[in-house]
Amino acid sequence: MSDSQPTVVVTGANGLVGVHVCAALVERGAAVRAVVRRAGTAPRLDGVDERVGDFHDPALASDVTRGADAVVTTVHPMGSDRETQRRIGVEGTTAVARAAADAGVDRFVHVSTAAVYDRSPGVGDVDERSALVADDAGDYPVTKRDADAALAGVDGPTRVLLRPPAILGPGDSSIWNTLRPADVRADERQRHTVPDRTWAWVHVTDLADLAAAVATGAVPTSPDPDAGPVAGGCTPVNVAAGPATWRDYLGTVTAALGVRPVWEDGPAWTGQVVADRAHAWGWKPAVSLDGALAEIDAGLRG
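RE: above sequence
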C-alpha cells in the first residue's frame, strides 16, 4: 500500500454499495477510479475519476488496475438467471482479480454475502468457519459462494471477502428499503413470515466504512485472520449489525404501508451472523437498529 494517497478501483460505483464505498474512500483521502457502465453515473465527488465500460472487460480491467493500490468489487446481477450471475458475478469478478494480480495490486476487497452460509432452521449462529450452502440453495447464494471460492484461487493480492446480510440504506435500487417493500405493498403473499425468524442486517454506510478501511490499509494484515486480513491470503469476514427479527423489519414496513403482516408458525433460522472478526479488526457499526428502521419508515411514508 502506498505511503502517499492510495488509489482504489471501485466496480459498480453507481450502485447502492458502490456509491457509499466511493464516499468512504474519499473521506479517507483515497483517489478513486469509479467503474460504471454508463457515462455520467459515477459519484460526483472530489477525487473520483469515472471509468466507463464493463468492469470485466479484459482491456478495461487491465487499464483501471494499472498502478492501483486496491480494488473493491461490488457487482453481482442479483435476480438474473444463474448463467448471467455466473458469467458476471463469478467469471467477471475473477477476471478483475487476475488483472489486479497482474498489475501488482496490494489488496482486493470483494463484497460477498452472508447468504453463502447454510442458515437452515436449527442451524445456530454462523461465523466465518461455518458450513456453506449446498448446490440446491438457489442461484444467488450458490454463485456468490462460487465467486468466493474462485477468488481464493487467485494468487497475489491480499483478498478480503466481506460477507454482509441484508444491506439497508435509502435508494431506488435498495432491496430492503425500496424494492422489497414494493413487493409487500403489491403482493399479500410477501406479508407472510415467521415473526421470530432472524433478520440479519447491516447499514450500507457501516459496510462501506469497513470496505474503505480494508482497501486503504487502515486494517493491518496479520497471520491470524481473527486479528486482520492474512497477507497474500483470502480472508472472509462477516459484516453484521445487532440482532433483529422479521417482526422488526416486516412490522416496520407493513405499518408504514398501511397493510397487515401475517405471522405464521413454522421452522425458521433463529441464529446470528457473528461479526466478532470484524469487531476485532476495529470495525464498529454506527447505525442502530432503531435508526435503520426509522429510516425505512420515513422513506416509505415520505
